[in-house]
Specification:
The chain is α/β, with parallel strands linked by helices. The chain has helices at about 20-35, 50-60, 95-105, 125-135, 170-180, 200-210, 245-255, 280-285, 305-310, 325-330, 355-365, 395-400, 425-435, and strands at about 5, 15, 40, 65, 70-75, 85-90, 110-115, 135-140, 150, 160-165, 185-190, 215-220, 220-225, 235-240, 265, 290-295, 295-300, 315-320, 340-345, 370, 375-380, 390, 410-415, 440. The chain is globular.
């Protein structure tokens, strides 16, 4: 098995230019494909997930070509894909699989949507049920409620009100929001129960506005698609840096500051960002980090008290609004002065892996005492971290999170470091650039 040995690392300092946001990149790629006109997408993320989206769009007859450094040019199809029969492999890219399911259910063609084994364990039944309310003909090729899927032509009943549960994944609502303007007759979406990960819906609504579709909403329970909705290219779209990826470097700046290192600055997101995960900086500040922000940058180091005690503060917080970046807080908790509890993170269970179970298992290897529940995790740090070999479960965020353990004066072996290609292929190179000595790669 390929592995990467990290640490011990004592000093992390410098500036990182973030890769483009995965969430924004895949939304914009799909909207550009569906729009009237041609769109140049600048600073788009180049990763496994965005490649899955691009390859699927090309298979559906969309021209999507490189246009200089970190840019793509997409020729929109005006709402109707030319190819009416295709099999699309979408890996483990939820930001591609869920929206394409909804869009293709309204496209009048025959499509099979496949992926990796883990994708077949990630529920999609709530989205399928909502699409069936509209008359969509979607069949399960394996276990009911889960991918892979077969989509067949159907007599649709667009318009009216469609309902979807909001407490499993916000991607179901995102998928419906992105797809329903294609009907041209308007629609209302009612969210049943509490909606999780609301900032990701804000990203969706913002992207739709860029392409000319303004959605009205009543709180977080009712969303109205106008009857005259039609996607139109804005010409050029810039993709923000990835706020979730920023969390690892900001955490490294705060942790390294406990022993005289830091600060670390990330460029590409800041106070003007549309991504909810910039709120990670608030959680880090609550733990005793020193945070400074500009419109397009954030810098983190250790606060004065943390430097004096060489410990950050423990935290007890509802982190439902930053589910991806909350994983970073779980590892930062190893450097806290007591027990930290992360609450309302049930969506971790249906991500790239069961992240609550995986996080608990790997934190225990480092010596932490960990308790877990259906939607929470509680972490008590050890007096001293233990060297460990960390399994990553083919989950990019597990690999990046646990790289931070090497800042605790120990060596950490990361299994399958290449899994970071899902969102940040150069993550370990960037981390090495901020440290006095580069980590070594073994196999």
């Amino acid at each position: 098995m390929e592995y990467l040995d990290l640490g011990p690392v004592r000093n992390v300092c410098g500036t990182v230019m973030l890769p483009g946001s995965k969430s924004i990149s895949n939304r914009v790629l799909l909207l550009a494909a569906l729009a009237d006109g041609e769109t140049q997408i600048r600073d788009v993320l180049d990763s496994d997930d965005t490649r899955c989206m691009c390859e699927a769009l090309r298979a559906l007859g969309v021209s999507c070509v490189a246009d200089g450094d970190r840019a793509l040019r997409v020729h929109g199809v005006g709402g109707a894909f030319p190819v009416k029969s295709a099999e699309l492999f979408l890996g483990n890219a939820g930001t591609a699989y869920r929206p394409l399911t909804a869009v293709l259910a309204l496209a009048g063609g025959n499509y099979r949507l496949t992926g990796v084994a883990r994708m077949y364990e990630r529920p999609i039944g709530d989205l399928v049920d909502a699409l069936r309310e509209l008359g969509a003909d979607i069949g399960y090729l394996g276990k009911s409620g889960y991918p892979p899927l077969e989509i067949r032509p159907a007599a649709l009943r667009p318009g009216g009100c469609v309902s979807v549960r909001g407490n499993v994944s916000s991607q179901y609502l995102t998928a419906l929001l992105l797809a329903l303007p294609l009907t041209g007759v308007g629609a209302t979406i009612q969210v049943i129960g509490d909606l999780i990960s609301k900032p990701y819906i804000d990203i969706t609504l913002n992207a739709m506005r860029r392409f000319g579709v303004a959605v009205e909403r009543d709180g977080w329970s009712m969303f109205r698609i106008p009857a005259d909705a039609r996607y139109r290219s804005p010409g050029v779209v810039f993709v923000e840096g990835d706020a979730s990826s920023a969390s690892y470097f900001l955490a490294a700046g705060a942790i390294s500051g406990l022993t005289g290192g830091g600060p670390v600055r990330v460029e590409g997101v800041g106070r003007a960002s549309i991504q909810g995960d910039v709120k990670f900086a608030d959680a880090l500040r609550a733990m005793g980090a020193r945070i400074e922000l500009g419109d397009n940058w954030i810098e983190a180091g250790a606060g004065a008290e943390a430097v004096r005690t060489r410990r950050l503060h423990a935290i007890d917080a509802d982190l439902n609004h930053i589910p991806d970046a909350a994983m970073t807080i779980a590892v930062v908790a190893l450097y806290a002065d007591g027990t930290s509890t992360l609450r309302n993170i049930g969506s971790w269970r249906v991500k790239e892996t069961d992240r609550i179970a995986a996080m608990a298992t790997e934190l225990r290897k480092l010596g932490a005492q960990v308790d877990e529940g259906p939607d929470w995790i509680r972490i008590t740090p050890p007096a001293r971290l233990q060297p460990a070999t960390v399994d990553t479960y083919d989950d990019h965020r597990m690999a990046m999170c646990f790289s931070l353990a090497a800042l605790g004066g120990i060596t950490v072996r990361i299994h399958d470091p290449g899994c970071v290609a899902k969102t940040f292929p150069d993550y370990f190179k960037e981390l090495a650039r901020l440290t006095p000595s580069s980590p070594g790669l073994g196999s």
